[in-house]
């Protein structure tokens, strides 16, 4: 592909982190004396960062209405979640097939790689280390690195500027509407992956520039075009 900068999403794109996120969510709910949920339910709550995941879990649904939770209640639950997720140590988090070799091939082909996730930045370095990816990405931003997160284009534009690329020279690659919308808002091409977490919706409905059903096909496309 005639681009120089590949901006990757993390959860649902490179790694399947939902088993650990679900365990941490349920540990938090148990600590707070609330009912727990299945992994399939929790999967549909991931995508807008941990604060949103925690709030959705507290009300037991994707839409959190104004006034349903107090800030104190949500702040406390978020702290309990952070502690639980930190303790879980990423033991159930795996890389999707062909991601490790694919990232290395793309880097070797001369692409600059960046990571923009909505996950709080404090959890990112350890996971990168687990997979030996700590030197792959030229820039890494978490959901709380800036005041705005995906679907806002701010983190994508920030990375472009930091790495001396125009949005036209960059492409956003992700599994969720937040990635595709952030890319479209930044006036970038977008590549969607269908296997991650997108609130149960087909990523193709967001009209990415192209969509792929597995990482190996995405890599092949990027190396050929
Ligand atoms: O933590 C989340 O909610 C999603 O993270 P992601 O942006 O890497 O998919
Ligand atoms: Mg994602």
UniProtKB/TrEMBL annotation:
Protein's UniProt keywords contain Nucleotide-binding: no
Keywords noted in UniProt: Carbohydrate metabolism, Hydrolase, Magnesium, Metal-binding
The record's section on InterPro entries has: HAD-like_hydrolase_sf, HAD-like_sf, HAD-SF_hydro_IA, HAD_2, HAD_sf, PGP-like_dom2, PGPase_prok
Q: What are its E.C. numbers?
A: 3.1.3.18
Catalytic activity reads: 2-phosphoglycolate + H2O = glycolate + phosphate
Q: Which CDD domains match?
A: HAD_PGPase
Which residues constitute the signal peptide according to the record? none
Residues bound to Mg(2+) are: 9, 11, 175
Q: Which Pfam families match?
A: HAD_2 (PF13419)
**Pathway named in the protein's UniProt entry:** Organic acid metabolism; glycolate biosynthesis; glycolate from 2-phosphoglycolate: step 1/1
| Cofactor list | Mg(2+)
Q: Which GO terms describe its molecular function?
A: phosphoglycolate phosphatase activity
Under the heading NCBIfam families, the entry gives:
HAD-SF-IA-v1, HAD-SF-IA-v3, PGP_bact, PRK13222.1-2
What is the recorded name of this protein? Answer: Phosphoglycolate phosphatase
Q: Which organism is it from?
A: Psychrobacter saeujeotis
